[in-house]
């Protein structure tokens, strides 16, 4: 009797604690209640439909699936599709369904339909979330609903020849008339993108002195054209599809407000030293003073500086950051440590002296300074792979760090002397033969062309720069494949009328959401700048426009981590360093550097105030007796009291580095 009472007591106690003794029913996982053929396909897409990898797709897992790909051939029902509440990407192919409206309440951003007998998709006009629509091999004949899909960015109609060009034009949406501030840009567009497939689309502006696009005349603009205001006035633009004008609009360019603070009675004597990605990191040498940029501050780093270089660990052999400061007396500081020898120049992670020595630095614990060559005269255009020896021969070189921590140098004489030109891995020899060097040292150079008179690196397309060469008969060829091409008379910079342009923080300006008659929305973190040929700096700060006069060159952009403040730095034409605060839209002078206006800028032999390739050409012609120098006092770059071939070499080094 006592045993029975005890047993009953235990059962009573157990009934009050359900968690430690789960029932078998609680452990059972129930599959989603959908069409069996569809279930078989979706369970094979386990990365989205079965994240716990238990080979069962539950109702909850179905509701959270972000994408669904279905072949409807054997599927009997699709009424369950709205259960996929989180699905944004839906692909439907084949089958016999003539009505797909069951998906009308799904929050899709991408819909792909192929080879189904559906004839009516008008329900899509109410799907405000749909961003991309792709239809292929459908008997669908009415596409008028597309006109009402105001949020649709991209529409692809494939292998449906019964949809005419006029039908497509009827559903296209165009930008309205544009009003643009001088120095800034707005986007003209035809939406949705890709509506006409591979058929070319062009935006043509009537008066390109008032407004223009960066696209070259031979290039297609596509469905969106960024139109820049060059000068005040009014003009028209037209949209062409396969050379047929389909739309016209008006462009009005208005004046912009330009802040014009007073200049100092000085001129710039500055060198911008960029590294990493060029825009985010930089230093500036002005009148021998090295300035650095840290958030909202300009810091004086060193005095009596001739040159500067910074190599981030991503570009160094030892996976360490390295800083090079070359003083005017030849003293070289690497990471703050002074080297015992004197040097005449630096170029990125390389440094050299007047005795033919070319060196590099790698902190491996031994042999930190490594001699690359003892016959160095100057760098070739591709200074990372080639140099010119004291005898005038092109030498190819490479170096690596072995597992023993030692540097191993490879030098290969090419046999080429007295080159007419060299750019990148292309060599134009004295016999007018163009050669291309492969990237691997053990491969021989390849003859690319004969009778070449000029080798250049220039813009060949709207956003493409390439090496091209000219032959004696006046033809132009692309160096990479030898294909004859036609160059336009002007580059994008010449068409738009700017000397510098770029963007920072948000990456490339892109379409975030475009729809119907709405203008494309721009990346709200992207800031664009451009310096016109009139030296006005225009900054498009996420749609807010700011301009300042007498800008010379953009330096860099810095942001304080964890804060919204961003700071753009630039030089003005008096040599002063200025800052633009992207949070407050305020300009302010940071350093009033520069040199007196009548000071000679060494290397500026044509007297235009800047040291450019044109000075190198002028000095070369002067040495050959072809022309006189406008500023001969600027020709003695090495300071030995005589202007000669050695100063030409020094000028070439200055321009390369």
UniProtKB/TrEMBL annotation:
Which keywords annotate this record? Signal
The keyword Signal is assigned to this record: yes
Q: What single Pfam family name could you report for this chain, choosing any that match? A: Dockerin_1
Q: Which InterPro entries match?
A: Dockerin_1_rpt, Dockerin_dom, Dockerin_dom_sf, LRR_dom_sf
Q: Name one GO molecular function term.
A: hydrolase activity, hydrolyzing O-glycosyl compounds
Tell me which positions the record assigns to the signal sequence.
1-25
Domain of life, source organism: Bacteria
**Which Gene Ontology terms describe the biological processes this protein takes part in?**
polysaccharide catabolic process
| The keyword Signal is assigned to this record | yes
The segment(s) forming the Dockerin domain are 598-657
Protein name listed in UniProt: Dockerin domain-containing protein
Instruction: State the organism named in the record.
Output: Ruminococcus flavefaciens 007c
């Amino acid at each position: 009797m006592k045993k029975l009472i005890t047993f009953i007591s235990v059962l009573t106690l157990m009934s009050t604690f359900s968690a430690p003794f789960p029932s078998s029913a609680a452990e059972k996982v129930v599959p989603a209640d959908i069409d069996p053929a569809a279930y078989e396909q979706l369970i094979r897409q386990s990365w989205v439909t079965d994240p716990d990898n238990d080979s069962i797709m539950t109702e909850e897992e179905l509701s959270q699936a972000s994408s669904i790909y279905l072949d409807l051939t054997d599927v009997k029902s699709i009424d369950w599709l709205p259960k996929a509440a989180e699905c944004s990407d839906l692909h439907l192919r084949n089958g016999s369904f003539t009505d797909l409206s069951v998906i009308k309440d799904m929050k899709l951003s991408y819909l792909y339909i192929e080879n189904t007998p559906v004839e009516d998709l008008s329900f899509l006009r109410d799907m405000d979330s749909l961003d991309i629509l792709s239809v292929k091999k459908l008997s669908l004949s009415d596409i008028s609903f597309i006109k009402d899909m105001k949020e649709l960015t991209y529409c692809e109609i494939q292998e449906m020849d019964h949809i005419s060009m006029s039908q497509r034009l009827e559903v296209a949406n165009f930008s309205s008339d544009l009003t643009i501030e001088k120095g800034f840009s707005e986007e003209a567009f035809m939406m949705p993108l890709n509506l006409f497939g591979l058929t070319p689309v062009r935006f043509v502006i009537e008066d390109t002195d008032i407004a223009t696009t960066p696209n070259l005349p031979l290039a297609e603009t596509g469905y969106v054209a960024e139109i820049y205001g060059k000068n005040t006035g009014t003009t028209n633009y037209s949209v062409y599809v396969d050379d047929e004008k389909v739309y016209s609009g008006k462009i009005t360019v208005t004046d912009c407000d330009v802040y014009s603070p007073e200049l100092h009675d000085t001129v710039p004597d500055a060198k911008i030293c960029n590294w990493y990605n060029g825009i985010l990191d930089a230093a500036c040498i002005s009148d021998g003073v090295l300035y650095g940029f840290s958030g909202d501050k300009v810091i004086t780093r060193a005095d009596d500086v001739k040159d500067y270089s910074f190599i981030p660990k991503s570009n160094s052999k030892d996976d360490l950051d390295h800083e090079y400061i070359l003083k005017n007396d030849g003293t070289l500081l690497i990471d703050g440590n002074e080297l015992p020898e004197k040097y005449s120049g630096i170029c990125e992670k390389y440094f050299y002296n007047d005795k033919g020595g070319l060196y590099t630095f790698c902190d491996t614990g031994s042999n930190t300074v490594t001699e690359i060559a003892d016959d160095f005269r100057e760098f070739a255009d591709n200074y990372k792979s080639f140099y010119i020896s004291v005898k005038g021969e092109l030498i190819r070189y490479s170096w690596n760090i072995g597992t023993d921590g030692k540097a191993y140098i490879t030098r290969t004489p090419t046999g080429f002397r007295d080159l007419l030109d060299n750019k990148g891995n292309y060599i134009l020899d004295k016999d007018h033969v163009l050669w291309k060097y492969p990237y691997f040292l053990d491969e021989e150079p390849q003859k690319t062309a004969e009778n070449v008179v000029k080798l250049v690196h220039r813009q060949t397309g709207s956003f493409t720069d390439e090496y091209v060469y000219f032959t004696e008969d006046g033809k132009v060829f692309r160096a990479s494949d030898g294909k004859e091409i036609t160059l336009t008379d002007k580059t994008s910079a010449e068409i738009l009328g700017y000397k510098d342009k770029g963007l920072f923080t948000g990456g490339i300006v892109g379409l975030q959401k475009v729809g119907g008659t709405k203008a494309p929305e721009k990346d709200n973190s992207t800031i664009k700048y451009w310096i016109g040929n009139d030296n006005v700096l225009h900054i498009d700060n996420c749609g807010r426009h700011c301009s300042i006069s007498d800008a010379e060159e953009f330096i860099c952009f810095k942001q304080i981590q964890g804060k919204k403040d961003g700071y753009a730095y630039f030089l003005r034409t008096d040599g002063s360093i200025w800052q633009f605060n992207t949070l407050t839209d305020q300009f302010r002078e940071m350093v009033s550097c520069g040199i007196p206006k009548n000071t000679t800028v060494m290397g500026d032999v044509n007297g235009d105030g800047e040291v450019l390739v044109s000075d190198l050409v002028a000095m070369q012609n002067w040495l050959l007796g072809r022309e006189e120098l406008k500023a001969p006092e600027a020709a003695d770059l090495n300071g030995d009291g005589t202007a000669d071939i050695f100063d030409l070499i020094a000028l070439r080094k200055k321009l390369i580095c």
